Amino acid sequence: QPVLGVEIPKPSGGVRQLGIPTVLDRVVQQAITSVLSDIYDPMFSNSSYGFRPKRSAHNALAAASRYIREGRGYVVDIDLAKYFDTVNHDRLMHRLSQDIADKRVLKLIRSYLQAGIMRNGLVEQRQRGTPQGGPLSPLLSNIVLDELDKELERRGHKF
Description:
Layout: E1 3-9, E2 15-20, H1 23-40, H2 57-69, H3 83-86, H4 89-97, H5 103-114, E3 117-119, E4 122-124, H6 137-154
Parallel strand pairs: 1-3
Antiparallel strand pairs: 1-2, 3-4
Helix pairs in contact: 4-5
């Protein structure tokens, strides 16, 4: 089903677009997330903290503090503007297909990605993005961002 488009104010100004799935879709997405987290979470960088089990912004700050004590001179805070809204579906699905053999699961995930968003009673189709507000989106975003994390590690950066 299409997700319900809701705008919430951001603390720094502006609004964040959420896509709230139906109750049934939330339940199915949570089940998918539970299974896929067991597959992907061990693969993610130890330096990745966002939207991960048993990790928080406090853990990330502690790591940054440790890096400063170890002699690193800079801390860079990066916010990928509208990241959830810009995830490329084909790139994400290609990445998922490398680890998920069951085509039914891949088809179900793609259907969630392409579910429309309802605003003011009208359904708009989505060509990109993972609707922020559903249980599956944070994991899918981390799967895409893992490539960046691995590149930062390869270059010897602490993050």
